[in-house]
Specification:
Length: 381
């Protein structure tokens, strides 16, 4: 059933927490759930989850902020929040099509930490840490710091590369999550990028507004608004994640003039229904966030249990287009495996296209013909 209310789940599993502590992002980070013992204190785990927690230690760390943990159903292993952050034994199984670097980022780094795949924009990986870790993370080969590969960003070499590469007009800061930096450290980074004349704008990819809305302080927003044009791409997958605290944090960012889009990942058993996607996009718009991309889950190792069919993604877009506002509809994309970049995938609305014009079907299945441009001269008197 549709639910577009914004609820607070505080204090949830932390009834003794002081409100000032709860609202402090440092307290939230210090009290993250990172162990099997911590999970079992509150949740009834399945064997698959217990084994997953024990075996995931050198793949991708487990870490869940109290804020996000409060959204987890203690008894339901199919809970859409639980499936995103609690490891399962299936993560240890690797499908032959899966890769450790499914977007081919490592082979497009002119400087360690700086991915330059498209001519006019770069991806700047500035940290390997996040507030919580998503089990399907595309960058799990480096994110969280427990696997063998390490992120070793060469800061000065990256800035020098950007300064001498005038075709770069757009820098996407990601990682990991740069909003984990202190205000001062983040400002040093933004200031340095802002000083490069050919960089027109900066984007930050962050799941902090969802995992840790307490980090979106007025002081952070006051600092960010000095570096416009600034875009933030958030990452919410299920309507339940949009709590009243998240809505308020996003409101502060919007009030600071930051343009926000949402990138969600289509995940089996999490958000693979038209109903959940519709609630998600409607709540995002109410938070002044434009649904931007719906990603087919990348072929990251150990993610088969979280991936859906492509048809499922197409059916979801079909279930949105025409049935809600155009602003609410994200672009469904597949990141071309191995480094092909984002490729849009859409339902097929073209029935026939030839020299006589195009025949289309609309969202109700009705057909319409749009004629080709006439090649005969127009008689203008
Ligand atoms: S927040 Fe982003 S970078 Fe961090 S674990 Fe999740 S998907 Fe990966």
């Amino acid at each position: 059933m549709s639910d577009i209310t914004f609820q607070s789940h505080t204090p949830g599993y932390w009834p003794d927490a002081d409100q000032d502590d709860w609202d402090n992002h440092v307290w939230q980070l210090k009290n993250r759930v990172t162990s099997l013992e911590g999970l079992e204190k509150h949740l009834n785990l399945t064997e698959e989850e217990r084994a997953g927690v024990l075996l995931s230690g050198n793949k991708l760390a487990m870490s869940i902020t109290p804020h996000f943990f409060n959204l987890i159903d203690p008894d339901d292993p199919t809970c859409p929040v639980r499936r995103q952050v609690i490891p399962r034994i299936e993560e240890t199984l690797t499908d032959p099509a899966e890769m450790s670097d499914p977007c081919g980022e490592d082979s497009h780094m002119p400087v360690p930490g700086l991915v330059h795949r498209y001519p006019d924009r770069v991806l700047f990986l500035v940290t390997d840490r996040c507030a919580s870790y998503c089990r399907y993370c595309t960058r799990s080969r480096v994110v969280s710091g427990v696997s063998e590969q390490k992120l070793e960003t060469q800061w000065e070499a990256a800035f020098e590369y950007l300064e001498k590469t005038p075709e770069v007009r757009d820098v996407l800061i990601s990682g990991g999550d740069a909003l984990l930096f202190s205000d001062a450290r983040l400002e040093r980074l933004l200031k340095r990028l802002h000083a490069i004349p050919h960089i027109q704008f900066v984007r930050i990819g962050s799941r902090i507004p969802i995992f840790l809305p307490q980090r979106i302080t007025p002081a952070l927003c006051d600092m960010l608004k000095k570096y416009h044009p600034l875009f933030i791409s958030i990452h919410a997958n299920h309507p339940k994640e949009l709590t009243s605290e998240v809505r308020d944090g996003l409101g502060r960012l919007a009030d600071a003039g930051i343009v926000m889009g949402n990138q969600s990942v289509l995940l089996n058993g999490v958000n693979d229904s038209v109903e959940d996607q519709k609630d998600l996009v409607h709540k995002l718009l109410m938070c002044r966030v434009r649904p931007y991309y719906l990603y087919q889950c990348d072929l990251i190792e150990g993610s088969a249990h979280l991936r859906t069919s492509i048809q499922k993604g197409i059916d979801i877009i079909e279930g949105l287009r025409g049935h809600t506002s155009g602003y609410a509809i994200p672009q469904y994309v597949i990141d071309g495996p191995g480094g092909g970049g984002k490729i849009p995938v859409n339902p097929d609305y073209v029935v026939k296209h030839d020299d006589g014009g195009i025949t289309l079907r609309n969202y109700e299945g009705k057909k319409f013909h749009y004629p080709a441009v006439s090649t005969s001269p127009i008689d203008v008197k």
